Amino acid sequence: MSGISYLLTVYNKAPYLEGVVAGLAAQRGDFAREFIFVDDGSTDGSPELVEKLTAGWGNVTLIRQANRGPSAALNAAAAAARLPYLKSVDADDILVPDSSLWLLEALQTHKAVLAYGDGGSYELGQPVVMPELPAPPVSRVIADAMTMLIRNSFVSPSYMMVPADLYRQVGGCKEHIIPQDYSLQRKLAPLGPVAYVPGPIALMPKVAPGRLSDAPARTLHDINLLLLETLRERPDLTPDHRRLAARRATGRALKFRRRFPNDAPLAGSWLRWLRARLPLPADDARLIADGLKDFGVPSQLDGFHPYPRCLETGQAA
Asked: Whole-angstrom Cα distance, residue 86 to residue 120?
């Protein structure tokens, strides 16, 4: 039997929850389902609202935990899941009614380790208009998923679905990395095919204070840190992949330094950027590690572990 566990990580999302829960209720398909909400220390009444909106459903689990961040919250939800597929959902995103079926079929058709699709947007307080397709989208396998991942994450958590057994096999998300989708996707991609569904999976709010994009320093630092850890943990990566990682990381750091000046020497950022692009041997991991200081935030390399509410303080946690 196919079944989907919907994993919702909640941190102060009360204004969005009515639409999010309506999207869950509208999911079409003949499959078992359960809904696991992990409230990550909300202070706005979000967990009470979840209980009210899902009253009488009978297949809802609400877990409350101290504020630990989105990666830890998603891992907690996955640990409580009982069905064979995991559908992550940010608690301000609204799922398209057929999106679960599309992702489920893509995973099963291609025996994929991960399936993902596209997205859209909505405005809070306005009627939600669901996109319409002339026919169901036809999924396909991504030819070089690792190159795509080194360049950037595939998608947000709300756009993807994964097999539960593989999530647990790789140990879930890295909890010291704030963007939970990045670390999970990089763990899964080497294990098998990644399937893409060319259709809208979820709608994001056009404006949502508190998203990771509101804290670029912490978020971009962690993206580069994950690239560094990937190079250190995956000695089988090709030289092209390793150099691509160094180019992407040094370019990201330099762009940030130019946009948000801090105490780190700008000349060092330029030199690392140039070194990653010269056709000469280089320690790609070292170039990334040295550039973490460009973001002006405490680094996990120094024993720092991010406290998720640092996102509320702006770019420099």
From this structure: 21
